[in-house]
Every structure is written in C-alpha cells, then in structure tokens.
Design brief:
The chain is α+β, with helices and mostly antiparallel strands. It has one domain (4-122): 2-Layer Sandwich (Tetrahydropterin Synthase, Chain A). It is built from two helices and five strands. It has helices at 54-69, 83-93; strands at 4-17, 30-43, 72-73, 99-107, 110-115. It has a five-stranded mixed sheet with strand order 3-1-2-4-5. The protein is elongated and about 55 Å long.
C-alpha cells in the first residue's frame, strides 16, 4: 500500500470583475490580486518519492487557468464571477487532474473552497458558463 498525499501549488493573478445582481459596492467594476490554490491527491511513487510533480501542476494550471485569467475582465468568462464560481470554473478546466481541492481568494481574508467530498455523491458536476 502506497501513502497518499495532497500536493498543492499556489498561483496569483490580477483580474477585474463586477458582481451583477449584488447590492453593494462589489456590483461596480473593481479589481483584485487573486490567489489560487490547486490541490491534487496522489500516491507517492516509491521510485522517485513524488506523488505529483509540482512542475507539471504549475504547467497545467498555468496554461489552462492563469493564462486565461491574468489581467482579464472575469465577466467576459463568467456571467457571475464570484470566488465561488471561479472555483467551479477552475475545477472544470482541470478536471482530468486528481483534484482534491480548489481554493480561490478574492481578498487576503476572503476565499471560497471547492472539494468533491463536500458534494452530494462526491462529484463536481461540469460547470456551464
């Protein structure tokens, strides 16, 4: 039996958004330096001691997610670009990875977390934009 570990890579990007149907200052156009963590779950390979290569995780998330979001207007990608919906969007873009958790900070003290084990049936349905 091989040990299973969680491997996490953290990213930052700058993007603007506004929250439609929201009554408050966030309904107006504004920007953030967003913080994103993507965590995968994998068995440690006894041959090299690695569960999931950080370089590969950085490449995949960088190509599929960060390159699209950095310096973007998020409303062009999502009709309701909340931190919660951004988690769902990221999960959908990376769903072929052994995902465990996606966490997205809108501010240094406010974030949303998506994990399959929190869902009924343990699975994240495809996210439609």
């Amino acid at each position: 039996m091989k040990p299973v570990l969680l491997v996490t890579k953290e990213f930052t990007f700058d993007a603007a958004h506004q929250l439609p149907n929201y009554d408050g200052k966030c309904e107006r156009l504004h920007g953030h330096t967003w913080r994103l963590q993507v965590t995968v779950r994998a068995e440690v390979d006894p041959a090299d001691g690695i569960a999931f290569d950080f370089v590969e995780l950085k490449r995949v998330v960088g190509d599929r997610v960060v390159s699209e979001l950095d310096h973007a207007y998020l409303n062009d990608l999502l009709p309701h670009p909340s931190a919660e919906n951004l988690c769902l969007w990221v999960w959908n873009r990376c769903r072929d990875l052994p995902l465990h958790e996606v966490r997205c900070w809108e501010t240094p003290t406010s974030f949303a977390t998506l994990r399959a084990d929190l869902q009924e049936g343990g699975e994240i349905p495809p996210f439609e934009t």
